[in-house]
Amino acid sequence: MRKRQRTQIDLLETVAGWFKDLFGTPPFLAIDLGSSNIRIYLQGKGIVSRQKVYIVKNTKNNEFVVSGDEAYDMLGKTPPNLIVFNPIERGRVSDFDAVLFFLQKAIERALEPYFKNQLLTRFNLLFAVPLGLTEVEEMAVVEVGKKTGAREVFLIETPIAAGFGLKAPVMENTGTFLVDIGGGTTEVSLISLGGVVLSKILPSGGRDFSQALVNYLRLRYGLLVGDKTAEELKMVLGSIVKDSTDLVEISGRSMETGMPRTIKIKKKVLFEPLYPYFGQIIDLIHEAIEETPPELIKDVHNHGIILSGMSANFGDLDTYLAKELKLKITTVSEPEYAVIRGLGWLIEHPEVLSKVIIKFAKF
């Protein structure tokens, strides 16, 4: 009898959970979907997920197999019928169906620890989107949100989210100069009074740094390395400014013999293929400063520039840029989380969120 009563109680609790998920206040998710990583914030819980933006597709049946970190770990290791790819190109969606699959899986992983009945859980979504999206592109993002199961979808501009995440005076009558160095793009923005005064976008970022290293090692040393090796190499290069004699060991395949080969070279040498990209970033900042309204240029001079994005903490890039630009450059701790932290802050402060939304849809 007691066992039957316990079973009935468990059933009632389960049904009650279903009704709560169906009719209770829907959870609010914020999503920063970049060219290389996705980060998800859950209202009341904080940042609950970070995954690589990769998908594995089976070309025999055209079905998506896995996504996220699991897919990234398979990079360079798959048989011919499985391809590993990134569905985001330069901050823009290049494969709608792939992004939808990826987001559905990412949201499932994010909600799983907190909601038992994911199939019944409705949620609201806040997306950070790049500047300059067309109306069609914005509606495509909204449609993706709808198909993931969202009840409401909100869009705000990425630089605004980053500004809040960096604790900049976004809503005040002062200029904040941001440089976001992401995986696929570098974006320079000037923010004031809750909006973007001007912006410049460079179609290159951290992934281009990695590809430059791959090409350099192939052409200069006859060594073939994969994208993952190049990504790992970026993390250990050290200082751009200091004249270091430290060596780094790199393993790959010899182009001459086709056999495994390991070389040791100075870390400083590996910055050679990266300087052109640093130069492009400097030129982009110069262009933006030249177009800055006179009333805001003094703020740039007084407060300098704030770096954000996954490649902002690459070596001592801030010191290098400060030396070249002769301006104060600030990099906060974990700059790659600036956007998602800003989105999270806005979720917890809806009165401010309502002032910076660029598109809203309810289903």
Written account of the structure:
This protein is 39% helix and 28% strand. With 363 residues, the chain is of the alpha+beta class. The protein has 3 domains: 159 residues, ATPase, nucleotide binding domain (Nucleotidyltransferase, domain 5); 100 residues, ATPase, nucleotide binding domain (Nucleotidyltransferase, domain 5, 2-Layer Sandwich), CATH 3.30.420; 70 residues, Actin, Chain A, domain 4 (Alpha-Beta Complex), CATH 3.90.640.10. A 6-stranded mixed sheet has the order 3-2-1-9-10-19, sandwiched between helices. The longest helix is centred in the first third of the chain and has 22 residues. It is flat, with a radius of gyration of 23 Å. It starts with a helix and ends with a strand. About 4% of the residues have low confidence. One of its GO terms (cellular component) is cytoplasm. One of its GO terms (biological process) is cell morphogenesis. GO terms for molecular function: ATP binding. It is found in: Cytoplasm.
Q: What's this entry about, in short?
A:
This protein is an alpha+beta fold. It contains twelve helices and 19 strands. It has three domains: 26-161 and 340-362, Nucleotidyltransferase, domain 5 (2-Layer Sandwich), CATH 3.30.420.40; 169-204 and 276-339, ATPase, nucleotide binding domain (Nucleotidyltransferase, domain 5); 206-275, Actin, Chain A, domain 4.
How many strand elements? 19
Q: What is the CATH third-level topology name of the largest domain?
A: Nucleotidyltransferase, domain 5
What is the number of helices? 12
Average predicted local confidence, pLDDT: 89
Percentage of residues in helical conformation: 25-40%
Radius of gyration, taken over Cα atoms and rounded to an integer in Å: 23 Å
Form type: flat
How much strand content do the residues show?
A: 25-35%
Question: How far apart are the termini?
Answer: 46 Å
What class do helices, strands and sheet pairing give?
alpha+beta
Oligomeric state, counting identical vs distinct chains: single chain
The total tally of domains equals: 3
* CATH class descriptor of the largest domain: Alpha Beta
